Amino acid sequence: MALKIITSDCTVCGTCEFDCPNSAIRMKSETYVIDPAKCTECVGFFDSPNCVAGCPADCIVPA
């Protein structure tokens, strides 16, 4: 299962992009989006999704 960013809550800080070990998060149309084909929820890298843990706006949720 992938994650998604609630764009209306996103502050566009960029933390999630740099926290993602799979390069699944990128800037698109002035906000960040998560590519579900690349998102593994950090399985094999961290115990929980790294982007969720680092997001100061708490706007990354299950898709």
Give a written overview of the molecule.
The protein has helices at residues 15-19, 50-54, and strands spanning 3-5, 25-28, 31-34, 60-62. The chain has 63 residues and is α+β, with helices and mostly antiparallel strands. The chain has one domain: Alpha-Beta Plaits (2-Layer Sandwich). The strands form two sheets. A two-stranded antiparallel ribbon has the order 1-4. The protein has a two-stranded antiparallel sheet with strand order 2-3.
Mean pLDDT: 96
The radius of gyration is 10 Å
Give the class-level CATH name.
Answer: Alpha Beta
Straight-line distance between termini: 7 Å
Largest sheet: 2 strands, antiparallel
Describe this protein with a few key phrases:
63 residues; alpha+beta; Alpha-Beta Plaits; two-stranded antiparallel ribbon; 2 helices; 4 strands
List the SSEs and their pairings.
Elements: E1 3-5, H1 15-19, E2 25-28, E3 31-34, H2 50-54, E4 60-62
Antiparallel strand pairs: 1-4, 2-3
Offer a quick outline of the entry:
It contains 2 helices and 4 strands, in the order βαββαβ. By secondary structure, the protein is of the alpha+beta class. The chain is globular, with a radius of gyration of 10 Å.
